[in-house]
Specification:
seven-stranded mixed beta sheet; alpha+beta; six-stranded mixed beta sheet; 430 residues; single chain
Length: 430
């Protein structure tokens, strides 16, 4: 343990919490992760790990493990219902050097949890932390409704997510704005790309839109665990207030509605046997003006949450984790380190939060004019250089440099693939 080791409590055992814990534990700090669940587990379906997130995971030495489980994604493709007209067409990189990796949240959780366990990170479960008390001696946690002064913490890292009670208690005036649309999600078995599958590409996120009020998506996400079946994440946009209406009409009526827009998804609809197979997710927009207060700092969705349109949530959280660890490694003064942490992420976060807020109505809204504008732009301007490159950087999360201020350089993704292939060959040889 280093001489200036600190006692650090991390609230939440999601990707942000585990990545932060690994970084800080390896830096020599005394780290404890608190999680509200009896057994730590992932929540949600599929997500896209972009080159930014892969760079952080590579820095942690575990990117190759995630790539081995996930599905490489080279393209985002969307069509208009009925006409099949392309309204979204983004290639990561024609050279193949940049790509995303779609994974089930369980796969990302598993890889991070394995690394945290290997490094000896302590995780305490069945503990709900709702607030943090601070004085000149340190920080104290309100656990399961009771203030615990038996343990003093030098720093508390809140990674408890978009609905963080800690953030609300500290910044009651900074409200999370609910977005108009949420989505039904389901994790289903990948159907082999034959005539029955509708020809879905395994290396692409594919979507279908009707105006901006309907969005259906298919995202191949690889395997949840080694040896498991290949999976896809299926999603359908829906307003929160319409969920009960849809359920009242019945499952078959909902399926008929989906088929009417995108008949090709039939093999996946067949796998959905009840509404219990679907999880409804709500979304909101919030960016904390200053992501720290005294000895408490916010990382990931607890600091900034938005629509999933650009697929940046988990990637931003991973960048935050690296940024915090880097800031703490360069300054023993917590106040100065937390200030540097905030500054290092400010421009990147502001840009992508703004873009997400700006672009969401083009794909999820009741507007009739905005989707018409979207279709015109995607069929014309988006094809003219430098727009394809700008769209690629937007998806990759690299419109502005997210790396240099946090002590990173973008990793060579082809080397991760080479490592993954070597490991796969080794496993096969056994």
């Amino acid at each position: 343990m280093m001489d200036n080791a600190k006692r650090i409590a991390i609230i939440g055992a999601g990707p942000a919490g585990l990545a932060t814990a690994i970084y800080l534990k390896r830096a020599g700090h005394n780290v404890v992760v608190f999680d509200q669940f009896e057994t730590v587990k992932p929540v949600g379906s599929g997500l896209l790990i972009q080159p930014t997130g892969l760079t952080v995971l590579n820095d942690l030495g575990i990117a190759h493990k995630l790539v081995a489980l996930g599905q490489r994604i080279d393209r985002l493709h969307g069509v208009s219902a009925g006409t099949g007209r392309p309204v979204l067409a983004v290639d990561y990189d024609k050279t193949g050097k940049r790509f995303g990796v779609a994974v089930h949240r369980a796969a990302l959780f598993g890889v991070l949890h394995e690394a945290a366990s290997y490094d000896g990170v302590e995780i305490r479960t069945s503990v709900t932390v709702s607030a943090v008390s601070q004085d000149q001696y340190g920080a104290y946690l309100v656990k399961n409704g009771e203030l615990d002064r038996g343990e003093t913490w030098d720093l508390v890292v809140d990674t408890s997510g978009a609905l963080s009670e800690i953030r609300t208690s500290i910044f009651p005036d900074q409200k999370r704005r609910s977005l108009q649309y949420g989505a039904f999600w389901a994790t289903l078995d990948w159907t082999n790309p034959d005539n029955k599958s509708g020809g879905f590409r395994e290396d692409a996120l594919q979507q279908c839109y009707y105006k901006a009020s309907v969005m259906i998506g298919i995202l191949p996400i690889g395997r949840q665990r080694v040896g498991g079946k290949k999976k896809v994440a299926f999603f359908w946009s829906l307003k929160p207030e319409d969920v009960d209406v849809v359920k009242t009409k019945g499952l078959e009526a909902w399926k008929d509605d989906v088929r009417s827009y995108w008949p090709e998804v039939e093999p996946y609809l067949e796998q959905i046997k009840s509404f219990e197979d679907l999880t409804f997710a709500k979304y909101g927009h919030l960016t904390v003006k200053q992501p720290y207060h005294g000895r408490c700092v916010f990382v990931g969705d607890s600091a900034h949450s938005t629509s999933p349109q650009l697929g940046q949530g988990a990637n931003m959280a991973l960048l935050d984790a690296r940024a915090l660890a880097f800031a703490l490694s360069r300054n023993d003064d917590f106040a100065e380190a937390l200030k540097n942490y905030a500054v290092s992420r400010r421009l990147h976060l502001k840009l992508f939060q703004s873009l997400s807020l700006l672009l969401t109505p083009f794909y999820q809204s009741d507007s009739h004019l905005i989707p018409l504008l979207r279709d015109v732009l995607m069929s014309s301007v988006a094809k003219v250089p430098p727009m394809p490159s700008l769209l690629s950087h937007m998806v990759c999360g690299t419109l502005v440099d997210p790396y240099s201020k946090i002590g990173l350089q973008e990793c060579d993704l082809t080397k991760i693939l080479d490592t993954q292939i070597t490991l796969s060959d080794g496993v096969a040889a056994k």
